[in-house]
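Letters spell out the chain; backbone shape is given numerically. Both lines appear below:
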Amino acid sequence: MGEPDKSRGYEGIAPRYIAGRGSNSKGRGVGAIEVAEWSRGLPGGGSVLDVGCGTGLPISQVLIERGLEVFGVDASPSMVAAFRRNFPDAPVECAAAEDSTFFGRSFDGIVSWGLFFLLDEGTQRRLLSKVAGALKPGGSFCFTAPQPICSWNDAMTQQLSLSLGYEAYKEAMAADGLELTGTLLSAGDNFYYFARKLKQD
């Protein structure tokens, strides 16, 4: 039996993904507007970790265009190679999100678009803890996952996806010192969670 697929099926469909969502070069892909708006609350020149960055298009792209220092991590070697071609000056690591060495650093913001629900419950909770540990006090976090508790097969990879639901995410973040500051259901039916790391007294 081979090693588990840390990319959760995305390495296998990388050519199709890169030709579609991963080829957007105008910063107008799904999620770009919402993430750009979220990033306005980050300090100029601040550091951001894009967890599950894929090719970097369009999420990392809009952040880099705002003058932020972006770090990326993705478990798909093909996606990481595309990220490096797109943004040769941005540090990127090929690793499962929960194993990333970048969590040893501190960031002003962390974003994770379209990743959390691809992970099992335990991994999602561990990743939330790692996010909390890597954010600077007052730092911002943005991620996507459906609001209700639900499971389904991912449209591209056909692998099982799981949303823990609004209450579970809110409680898990609170336990790690992250305060939920807002949510958004976008026009494309993507549900966004926005949080910040509480400052210590």
Remarks:
- The first strand starts at residue 47 and ends at 51.
- Residues 98 and 123 are 7 Å apart (CA to CA).
